[in-house]
């Protein structure tokens, strides 16, 4: 669902016309900027213990006296950070999203300034908590009736806030696109579907989109990518989409997204439990499409190339077998000891293909290893890079995008396990440090440019009752790309 957003500089919060007023209360309420009726309600709630100023606490008031808005939520932030502010906004919106409210206004309850980052957080929070999946479940109720979001701020903050709202809209729309793609079942979201999404973005934003098929990939010598695709009757797609916001000569940022639309493991078949979740194995590809959308909307002065190798990983008579040796586009040979380590096999050819763009930097994004989930859980994506500048930029983007990643090692010693008696390398190392050996495998294909790898196996989707795509790391990537503007 999309909604309009706007800025308004209010005279009095109690006089604001909206269906619900979400007021974020910082930990330090000494200087409330609320007008009398709201200030009295807040002071009383705090005095009575109905609201405490801890993160996650909130209080809903229905038709409070002297206030124009029929619904008011006080949401405690617990800390004076953008992250805490965003969580409080989400908490407030969650309280009223199921109501009749169409127009939600957000403001600070305390004296304080709102930055562009706060504004971005309001839009992304609103969009994240009102998303619901419908495509194959049209009966699912809409998460909310929200169609208008207003951020109330001072005149002095209005300019920064306007920038933040625009960035928030772009990021949120990118996240929503990524979630929608990844949530679609694997018989809907096929490589062909991903290619269509890229073409659609191309039409909407005037991007150059090229889709290579099996024959094209054969000509290019992508023996590794082709080996994964050969076990499925679903046609592979190698998608290349280009946003040109700067002179042609300017070296582009290149994003490479793993687009396995279903990972059965192949002949090294996965166990049955939760295998359905392997439809999310195109989360890297989805995040690249989402980022492309966000960047195309914001039109920064830089060039961006998005590459998505996409296919299914299936067992079949023609499927690649453990022990098979294939030749990658780079010329290096690979002994496939485990067909379930397929992500690196499709990425390595895409990373070689990326060389032709003479990139300023290449970032690949992949739901690559279960080992990364063991190492980092579901909060941080794994970041792997030998480049200190890129590492610092990624770290900064993960903070400003509120989309955390954590750097992992890439020391030479971890390469040891990839030795093979029958090829230049094997596609798996030892079980120990599995996320790192996977990254070491990719590193062998990235000698020609600065490179980073994001393992999003733990962050791209949620399991259990809230099963679904998170749209991560679109925010991180968008912030990273925007920061590359010279
Ligand atoms: N797509 C999986 C990684 C994955 C597994 C992500 C579970 C999220 C949850 C990847 O293709 C895979 O199967 N990796 C193997 C590698 C192993 C065979 C070296 C894994 O992690 O088990
Ligand atoms: Mn696999
Ligand atoms: Zn996989």
Brief rundown of the structure:
With about 475 residues, the protein is of the alpha/beta class. The longest helix has 26 residues.
Secondary structure blueprint with pairings:
Elements: E1 4-8, E2 20-25, H1 36-48, E3 58-62, E4 71-76, H2 82-96, E5 103-108, H3 116-130, E6 148-152, H4 158-183, H5 191-205, E7 208-212, H6 214-220, H7 223-229, E8 237-244, E9 253-257, E10 259-263, H8 283-298, E11 303-313, E12 325-327, E13 333-335, H9 343-354, E14 361-366, H10 370-376, E15 381-385, H11 388-400, E16 405-407, E17 425-426, H12 434-443, E18 451-455, E19 461-462, E20 468-469, H13 474-482
Parallel strand pairs: 1-6, 2-4, 2-5, 5-6, 9-11, 9-14, 10-11, 13-17, 14-18, 15-16
Antiparallel strand pairs: 3-4, 7-8, 8-11, 12-13, 15-18, 19-20
Helix pairs in contact: 2-3, 3-4, 4-8, 5-8, 7-9, 8-13, 9-12, 11-13
Bound molecules: ligand BES, manganese (II) ion and zinc ion.
The site of ligand BES has 16 residues, from helix 10.
At CATH level 3, the topology of the largest domain is Aminopeptidase
* Number of DSSP-assigned strands: 20
Class by helix and strand content?
alpha/beta
Strand fraction equals 15-25%
CATH architecture of the largest domain, by name, is 3-Layer(aba) Sandwich
Overall mean pLDDT stands at 96
